[in-house]
Amino acid sequence: MKTPSLQSSGGCACASGRLTTPASLLLSDYLLGKIPRWGLVAAATLLWPAAGLPPASAATTTSYTATGIVIEHPYGGVWITNDTGQVSLHGDAQVFKVDSSNARLAGRRTVLTDGTFNADGSGILYGTAFQELGTWDMTDPQSPRFTPSAGRWEMNWRGTMNADSGIELSLVGTGAGGAIEGMRTTESLTRPAGPWFDPVLSFTCRGSLTTPPLSTVTLIDDFEDGKATGWTPGCNSGSIAAVETNGQLILRGNWPGTQTVTGYDTAGWVMRPFNWNAKNNETLELRVDLVGISDAATEAEVKLKHVPACYGFSKSQRYVMLWKFVPDWPVMFFTFESLALKNTNVTLVLALTGRGPDLIVTGRVLDKANHDAILYERSIVDTPNADPTLSADEFEERSGSRLLLAPDRAEPPLTTIDHICLSLLQYTDGQLPPAEVTFDNCEIRRYSVPSLSIANAVRLTWPAVAAPYAVEGASAVTGPWLPVLEPVFESRNMKQVTVPAADAMKYFRLR
């Protein structure tokens, strides 16, 4: 049977710069100098980082160094030689004493190793490891004693062994228990040439330790005690009452004889202190359940305030909108959308996310009856510049109501919050009956935006046939050829494997 050829799934073959090389280039193109750094036996798709994507992690990262020596080799694994003379190792176990510049990376590391080796001794190594935190008593070097403490690292690793048995590995780990719960570590490990098991040779590591992403939920009030404790009511005219009953909070506002001109003329609220300073890629989220809106009420609102300024998210019987208020300036409406969303058993969400000098403002409506499915979501970016807002004419055209509005001012976003606020608005000519909005379960969530990374990689594809072909890779056409260990997937009668593009040059073949 003819060996199937590796094919491209539609990309390029260049390892730096923009993707300009056609996917159909083969090894001959490299020999002709048409591929600057990557020579491929077959065409391949290069998965490239998107330009301009900033790192998105609010977690703290600390660098560290470490050294380790073998103190025990409890199991030498199983060595297998196949018909072609290629040697593989399965299940080797070694125990290391690890010292580190960071105590959270010091302890006893047990390493389990698999590998595949060439005739010259070079090969690919991979496996798992776990490391207990603790201290060593080396009073008797022939009988070291380890005292564990709380915390353990679970690691995965892979790398290469040179012909002289020098080792280069990459490790990633997750902490569990104690002071390392939820932490992440990435590590580069090297060991000089020498015998496979040599207690004299030590490995050296350089790594980074990342704290777990922030994720907290704070219940502010479930309104079960029958008292609006900690909430301060307020309004600019008329009257506002806050009553807890049946485990819910009812805001009742009345504005007889007052006509709505600005968004604050006929609004009433309760607010309570809560302090937050925006950090890059950290989100503050105010949530409250909306139980109902009376026919006389126009909007239910949630606000995050730096008193008296604030961001607000409003839901009415027939629309939703995001807005901002600053002192001595009319309200600024960022968005207004006519939507017939239900007004009971939903959750209103207002979220602020720091992103450099900007602030991302997000409003959501969640369906409590359907596992918090998102019924509505919209975000705007408030920058230090004057950002787009709706004019009074645009608002009237969309809503049928007339309000005094203003364009955004060129000034920094509100990056400091000191109060949370629940509110109602009645758009009125002064003749409407009292308005009511009922809330429940107010909470604050804080979390870091998780990192999203796009790796340099090559996707190799070939027709799925009966014969069990395997992909091998080499840094030169003459070899040595080693198996590609990444998982192979099959879809629509094609097999594919994605390989990290870490080397300056790489060749692939089927065998």
How would you explain this protein's 3D organization?
The protein is mostly beta strands and 511 residues long. The protein has three domains: 27-51 and 455-510, no CATH class; 61-210, AOC barrel-like; 216-448, Jelly Rolls. It is 3% helix and 52% strand. It is built from two helices and 31 strands. It has helices spanning 27-31, 392-399, and strands at residues 45-47, 61-75, 78-81, 87-100, 107-117, 123-137, 145-161, 167-176, 184-191, 202-210, 215-221, 232-235, 239-245, 248-254, 267-277, 282-293, 299-306, 309-316, 319-325, 332-338, 346-355, 358-367, 373-382, 416-425, 435-448, 457-463, 471-474, 482-483, 489-491, 494-500, 507-510. The chain has an eight-stranded antiparallel barrel. β6 (123-137) and β7 (145-161) form a beta hairpin. It is elongated, with a radius of gyration of 31 Å. Residues 7-58 have low confidence and may be disordered.
In short:
The protein is an all-beta fold.
When the domains are counted, the total is: 3
Q: Would you tell me the overall average pLDDT?
A: 84
N-to-C terminal Cα separation, in Å? 12 Å
* Major sheet: arrangement of strands: 2-4-5-6-7-8-9-10
Low-confidence stretches: 7-58
Q: How many extended strands?
A: 31
Major β-sheet profile: 8 strands, antiparallel, barrel
Classified in CATH, the superfamily of the largest domain is: Exo-inulinase, domain 1
Shape: elongated
CATH fold-level topology of the largest domain: Jelly Rolls
Strand content is over 45%
CATH class of the largest domain: Mainly Beta
Radius of gyration from the alpha-carbon trace, in angstroms: 31 Å
| Share of helix, binned | under 10%
Assembly state of the chains shown:
single chain
Structure annotation, total helices = 2
CATH architecture descriptor of the largest domain = Sandwich
Q: Which structural class should the secondary elements be placed in?
A: mainly beta
